[in-house]
Structure to design on (154 residues):
């Protein structure tokens, strides 16, 4: 009796393992949403301090199911994204709008925006880059009226 039970358990175990191994991976032609961006990098170039920090990343749902953007996060609080909350139907386009808020601070811009969605091609990372410069001329002390001139410390 022990031998029969052991044989049945072994057979079920082998069938269970064989069934687990035959699970198919999604094929290249699997249906679903797919996101395709026109550009994944926005280069502001060299911009003057105080410039407009707005840009947008246009995308299209090239899949066969509605595309849902579940979350869009940035690498820091100085980059603020907004994205469509409604599903993007197959063949339709949408845009993720980004505002870089530190355009009054001279320096290099290098930030990432992570897009999470139900797309079959996974998480997408977008980037913004550029350089903010301050080309305003420095004020010369001699140009100021006498009552505004700095007095040297002794």
């Amino acid at each position: 009796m022990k031998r029969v039970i052991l044989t049945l358990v072994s057979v079920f175990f082998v069938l269970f393992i064989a069934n687990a191994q035959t699970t198919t991976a999604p094929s290249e032609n699997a249906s679903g949403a797919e996101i395709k961006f026109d550009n994944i990098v926005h280069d502001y170039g060299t911009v003057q301090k105080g410039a407009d920090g707005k840009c947008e990343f246009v995308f299209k749902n090239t899949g066969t199911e509605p595309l849902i953007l579940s979350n869009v996060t940035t690498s820091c609080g100085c980059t603020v994204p907004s994205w469509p909350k409604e599903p993007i139907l197959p063949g339709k386009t949408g845009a993720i709008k980004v505002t870089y808020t530190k355009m009054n601070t001279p320096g290099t811009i290098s930030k990432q925006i992570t897009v999470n969605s139900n797309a079959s091609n996974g998480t997408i990372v977008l980037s913004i880059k550029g350089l903010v410069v301050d080309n305003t001329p420095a004020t010369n002390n001699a140009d100021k009226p006498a009552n505004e001139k700095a007095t040297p410390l002794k």
Q: What stands out?
A: The chain has a mean pLDDT of 82.
